[in-house]
Amino acid sequence: MSKISKKRRQFKIKRGKKKRKKIRKLKEKYFTTQSKEGKGKIIEKMRKISPHSPIEETLSVKKENKVE
User: Which of 11, 38, 57, 65 could form a disulfide with 33 if both were Cys (CB 3.0 to 4.6 A apart)?
Assistant: First the structure.
């Protein structure tokens, strides 16, 4: 197995940070949105950015913590 070059590794790290930042912004927007259509669109965007992450579980956990 070959090593990854330093430049390629830095690119992957930067891409991951950008994705996490965008997901965080969309989560905040999700909780401030009132309409179901808007929330559905936001979830679709989150799925497009990160298709394998458990978005519904993350949002429900965050919502429970916010209520308390």
Answer: 38
1-5 contacts at long range (C-beta below 8 A, 24 or more positions apart): none
Burial 30-47 (b: 16+ CB within 10 A, else e): beeeeeeeeeeebeeebe
**pTM for the full model?**
0.73
30 vs 65, which has greater pLDDT? 30
* Residue showing tokens 């949002």: 59
> For residue 10, is pLDDT > 70?
yes
**Max CA-CA distance within the chain?**
50
Distance separating alpha carbons of residues 4 and 52, to the nearest angstrom: 24
